[in-house]
Design a protein that fits this description.
The protein is built from 6 helices and 15 strands. Strand 13 and strand 14 form a beta hairpin. The protein is 21% helix and 26% strand. It has a single domain, classed as q2cbj1_9rhob like domain (Jelly Rolls).
Length: 286
């Protein structure tokens, strides 16, 4: 199966090695523009069609933002409320995008594969592949946190996440922000959400970097890197596409299931997903 790759090419190994080095040192790295303007438009249309029910995949994960924009009211792994509930521009998350051909193409980009081979190996799976939508109406914050936790029922920890802007990410509309170098501390507390005291200590030692991106530009960051985002203060939703990658051998300890495989033997292909009649059960579902 051939994939349409729109990402930047590297004339020699020294260019990609510079990106590897920056990532290892800082816990994140900007990849530049990795897809074409025409393909960005296609992804935005697919996203809008999913939000408004013009395109549907039975079993797909949808999560609405809190009506009042309070992040702490949002429940996680709440299966009954992780479904499509009618047309809305306030879906905070839409997951299972590895089963959507336009987004699987993005995962298969050469630049992502190179990082996966370097930091994971030849066999990699997706912990989650999703749209992160920050609505301009009653926007919620995303507090500083890590995308790892000792409380998550996983056999090992995920590796890194690619975050790509679909319509521009700025300070004003709530772009991703990271605490540079925070990945070197490993898991803080139990992981995921930080205590106020830990966050203050990190900010004293390290700078907070706002990762503004133009449409089609991407950043890659370690799951151990502390990150978050502010509220959207514009009059337009901020759309981002993300994929979190990890070793394909990792299992969910609750169900003993592995995660959707995107690189390596028997990984997802356009041909395979075209034959699916519905989204497979989530790995945390029995």
């Amino acid at each position: 199966m051939k994939y349409k790759n729109y990402d930047i090419s590297f004339s020699n190994n020294s260019e990609i090695n510079k990106l590897f080095s920056f990532y290892e040192q800082n816990g994140y790295v900007k990849l530049g523009k990795i897809i074409s303007d025409n393909y960005i438009k296609k992804l935005v249309k697919v996203t809008q069609d999913l939000m408004h029910g013009k395109r549907s995949y039975p079993g797909m994960f949808f999560k609405l933002d809190d009506p009042k924009g309070n992040y702490y009211n949002i429940k996680h792994e709440d299966v009954e409320n992780e479904k499509y509930s009618g047309p809305s521009n306030r879906y905070k998350k839409i997951k299972d995008l590895e089963y959507v051909p336009e987004f699987l193409n993005c995962i298969k980009l050469k630049i992502i594969k190179k990082f996966s081979q370097k930091f994971i190996g030849s066999e990699a799976s997706s912990m989650r592949t999703m749209i992160l939508n920050k609505s301009y109406i009653n926007s919620s914050i995303l507090p500083f946190h890590q995308d790892v936790s000792n409380k998550w029922k996983m056999s090992k920890k995920p590796s890194f996440t690619v975050w790509m802007s679909l319509n521009g990410a700025t300070k004003k509309n709530g772009c991703l922000k990271v605490i540079e170098g925070s990945h070197k501390y490993g898991i803080l507390n139990f992981g995921n959400n930080l205590t106020t005291s830990v966050e203050k200590k990190l900010k004293k030692k390290h700078k907070v970097v706002f990762l503004e991106l133009k449409p089609g530009e991407a950043v890659l960051f370690s799951n151990y890197t502390v990150h978050g985002s502010n509220k959207n203060k514009t009059k337009k939703n901020r759309l981002g596409f993300t994929v979190c990658l990890m070793d394909a051998r990792i299992k969910n300890l609750k169900t003993n299931k592995t995660y959707p495989k995107v690189f390596g033997k028997n990984s997802l292909t356009l041909s395979k997903i075209s034959k699916l009649k519905k989204i497979p059960k989530k790995v945390y579902e029995n």
